[in-house]
Design a protein that fits this description.
The protein has helices spanning 22-28, 77-89, 99-112, 118-125, 136-151, and strands at residues 2-7, 10-15, 47-50, 53-56, 69-71. By secondary structure, it is of the alpha+beta class. Helix 2 (77-89) packs across helix 5 and helix 4 (118-125) packs across helix 5.
Amino acid sequence: MTLELTLNGRKTSGEIEADTLLIDFLREQGCYSVKRGCETSNCGLCTVFMNDVPILSCSVLAARAAGSSITTLEGLQEEAAEFGAFIADQGAEQCGFCNPGFVMNALALFREKKDPSEEEIKEYLAGNLCRCSGYEGQLRGIQAFLEWKKGKGETR
């Protein structure tokens, strides 16, 4: 079957089997930021936006995305780069494997919460597996980024 969708702002199509997962389709399209980690929808490494809502692409059939707009980290480079510097500054990207999924969820947080509390930030971090750190660096990076945005007078 032919799958047609919008991927990172561009119309895309490809042949898929009925049981093809969205993660596999995206990787075939060159979106290597979308990573396979746990294959049980628990690690957050495969997070993408489908119609601007974060989803786990390892648990969605590609056919379900037909006609949808899918955004991966490749489509959010400018937005992600601005935030990524704050994570790096806190030493929270030791091996980097979890970063794409983590950044996608952090960007979802910034879009959905104008001024998140520490507890709300931790809720967004809860779905992301990082084996290198205790998440404190990521928490500090998010808080520093939000303070920086406030200082610039920007809110989301």
